Amino acid sequence: MSHELTAQPLWTGDYYNEGTGRSDIFDTLKEECGVFGVYGHQDAATLSYYGLHALQHRGEESAGICVTNGVQFNYHREMGLVKEVFDKDRLASLTGDMSIGHVRYSTSGDSRLTNAQPLIFKYRDGDLAIATNGNIVNAPLIRKELEQTGSIFQTTSDTEVVAHLIARSSKDFIEAVKDALRKIVGGFAFMIMTNDKLVIASDPNGLRPITMGRLGDAYIFASETCALETIGAELVRDIGPGELLILDRGGLREDRFTEPQRKALCAMEYIYFARPDSDLNGANLHSARKRMGRQMALESFIDADIVTGVPDSSLSAAIGYAEQTGIPYEMGLIKNKYTGRTFIQPSQELREQGVKMKLSAVRSVVSGKRVIMIDDSIVRGTTSRRIVNMLRDAGATEVHVLITSPPFKNPCFYGIDTPDRKELIASSKSIEEIRKEINADSLAFLSPKGLIKAVGGNSANEYKGGLCMACFDNDYPTKLDFGGEEKRSF
C-alpha cells in the first residue's frame, strides 16, 4: 500500500456517517425515519431509548428524545447513532411520563443538527414538539406562502411547516392540528406533543407505517412492531389512514382529520426497509419475504448449484427461493456487521473497493458453483455489478441475479431518498441491458402481481394489495404539486 493511500482520510466531516446518505458507496435506497412515542409511563425516556435502538436501521444520521413531566420539556438531540447520542446520565436527566423520539435519515432537509428531530418550538400556548416519518410533497409551496406572510423558519426540514401552520391558527390545539394536516400532501406518520397532550396521525393513504401497543397502562407508538417487542409491549393495532389519536389526562380518544383515501402502504417497507421481525398490516416481514422468494422461483426458475442472498434484507427471500426449488441455500456472501447501513465515506482510492468493506464472498462456498444471487432491488446498478464481480472473483462459474421486486423506475416523493429518474438504471435500460451492465449471466425481476400476492396480509383484497407501487409503475396515490400542474404520474 502506498504512502499516499494511507495518508488519505477515511471520511469527511466531523463524525463517521455525516452526510453519507448523499454520497454513499452503496447504491441501496435510503430509509425514511423512525418514530417512537410513549404516553403514561414513568420511564418514558428509557423506553424511547430502547425503542429507537430497535428502529436504528431506519435512520443513522441523528437521534433525539423529548420528554415532558406535564410542566416543561426536557429534550436532547445529536448527530449520530442512538447509543452515541444517549448515555445513562443523559437519560436520567430526561424525566417525565410522556415522550416522543426520532431517528433520522435526511430525505428532506440538510444533514445537520438543526434538522434533527423532535423539533421543539415555543408558541403562544406553550411548548410544542414534533417528530415525523415521511415527506411532505407540498412543503416548499406552503413554506413559501408562510414566509411571504411573515413566518421565519429555523430549519430546512419539511416538518417545520406543520408547526407554523399549528401556531398561526386561531383555533384550539386539536382543531389547529387537524387543519394543518389537511393542508399537507404526502406520506407521513406524525407525533405531536405538548405538555399535556400526545397526538398521533397517519396520512390519508397510510403510506408510512405507525403502530400502537400497550405496556401495562401505558400507550406505546412506533414505526415498526419490532420496537414494541423490544420493550415488551403488546401490539394493539396499526393506525389507519387519516386517523388521529389524542392522548391526555382524559385517556385515549380515537378521531380522524380526514376520510381515508386509497390504502397505499409503501411496498419497499415489505421488500427492504422494515426489520424481518416486524409485522405490517398483519403480515410478518420475514414470512412475506420468504413468499417473495417462493414466487420468484415460480416465475423465474434457474438451474444452479446454490442460492445465496445479499445480506441482510434478501436472506429471507433467498431461503424461500431455495425451499421452493430444492436448490441448497448457502451463505455465499457475508456482511461485516460493524459497518452499519451507512458506512464511512472512504477516500476515492478506496471507493472502488468499498463494497468489500461491507460484504465478502465465501470462496469455499461459491468456487466452481453456478450461483443464484437474490437481492431486493437494483437502483443505479453499481453495487449489483460489484457483488456479481466479487462472486466471480471468488470462483463462481455463473452468477444469476434475481430481484424480489419489479424494476425500480420512478423516484419516491413520500420519504425515501431516491436518485433522480435519470440515475435509476431501470428507467432507461431494458432488463437485458441491465444484465449486461451488472455482468450477470441472467437477470429477472419479480412481477408486480407476484409481489402483491407474496405480501398478503390484511390488505390483500384492496387495490394493488393496499400497496404504493409508484416507484415501479408511476401510479402515485396522491397528487404531486411542485408549484405547477398537479398530476398523479411523473
From TrEMBL:
Q: Which residues are in the Glutamine amidotransferase type-2 domain?
A: 33-250
The chain's coiled-coil residues are none
**Where does the record place the catalytic residues?**
33
What keywords is this UniProt entry annotated with? 4Fe-4S, Glutamine amidotransferase, Glycosyltransferase, Iron, Iron-sulfur, Magnesium, Metal-binding, Purine biosynthesis, Transferase
Q: What class of enzyme is it?
A: transferase
Q: Which InterPro entries match?
A: GATase_2_dom (IPR017932), Ntn_hydrolases_N (IPR029055), PRTase-like (IPR029057), PRTase_dom (IPR000836), PurF (IPR005854), PurF_N (IPR035584)
Free-text remark on how the cofactor is bound: Binds 1 Mg(2+) ion per subunit.
Q: Which residues bind [4Fe-4S] cluster?
A: 266, 412, 468, 471
What Gene Ontology molecular-function terms does this entry list?
A: amidophosphoribosyltransferase activity
Entry EC no(s): 2.4.2.14
Q: Which Pfam families match?
A: GATase_7
Q: Which cofactor does it need?
A: Mg(2+); [4Fe-4S] cluster
Q: What pathway does the UniProt record associate with this protein?
A: Purine metabolism; IMP biosynthesis via de novo pathway; N(1)-(5-phospho-D-ribosyl)glycinamide from 5-phospho-alpha-D-ribose 1-diphosphate: step 1/2
The residues the record assigns to binding Mg(2+) are 313, 375-376
Q: Which reaction does it catalyse?
A: 5-phospho-beta-D-ribosylamine + L-glutamate + diphosphate = 5-phospho-alpha-D-ribose 1-diphosphate + L-glutamine + H2O
Tell me, in a sentence or two, what this protein's role is. Answer: Catalyzes the formation of phosphoribosylamine from phosphoribosylpyrophosphate (PRPP) and glutamine.
The family classification in the record reads: In the C-terminal section; belongs to the purine/pyrimidine phosphoribosyltransferase family.
The UniProt entry, under HAMAP family, shows: PurF (MF_01931)
**PANTHER family, from UniProt?**
AMIDOPHOSPHORIBOSYLTRANSFERASE
- This protein's name: Amidophosphoribosyltransferase
